[in-house]
Amino acid sequence: EWIVDPIDGTVNFVYGIPAFAVSVAAALDGVPVAGAVVDAAHGHVFGACVGGPATVAPVDLRSEEAVVGERKNISRQEARKDLAQALVATGFSYDAERRQRQARVLGTVLPHVRDIRRLGSAALDLCMVASGQVDGYYEHGLNAWDFAAGALIAARAGATVVTPTLNYTADSGLPIIAGVPGVQEELEKMLVSQGAGGSIEQLS
Length: 204
Description:
The longest helix is centred in the middle third of the chain and has 14 residues. This protein has 2 domains: about 70 residues, Fructose-1,6-Bisphosphatase, subunit A, domain 1 (Fructose-1,6-Bisphosphatase, Chain A, domain 1, 2-Layer Sandwich); about 120 residues, D-Maltodextrin-Binding Protein, domain 2 (3-Layer(aba) Sandwich), CATH 3.40.190. Helix content is about 25%, strand content about 30%. It contains 5 helices and 12 strands. It starts with a strand and ends in an 11-residue tail after the last helix. The chain is α+β, with helices and mostly antiparallel strands. Helix 3 packs parallel to helix 4. Its cofactor is Mg(2+).
């Protein structure tokens, strides 16, 4: 099964903000086994497969055929941090009522982390966890095409990643929680303590 998002970060793309990606994953029996995310604006392609390392390589998209440069392995296995020192990414729904719930959760998280970043592309957020540009990431209510490739890349880089199964849709409101050792566990505990460890729709 192919899981494809031709433009992850559509609003950024429309507004000319250089934070959007092409995300492609292959899944077997409902589990991602290979994935690639192309950061088109900055000319990088991230990739991973089950049993292999996460990698990043430069890619030249200016010609008819993309030219991929030398791949380098990326790893966060030794990047243990306390949540208080963690830079954490998140995202928000298109739905106004769900955004209100997400804002309440964010208000709880923000005092306990170094800072928050909101990029607007789940695939890139997860690749940033893999590459070390952020230490953690959480978001409620994504579709499989938003996270399938990026979650595998982050996991193969050594991050801990918890996602819904691929058959759930954004309507479920379930969270994806990713981070380096120490950060993901504490972030998940915090979300659970606030009643946001499951569907965001459970919050009143």
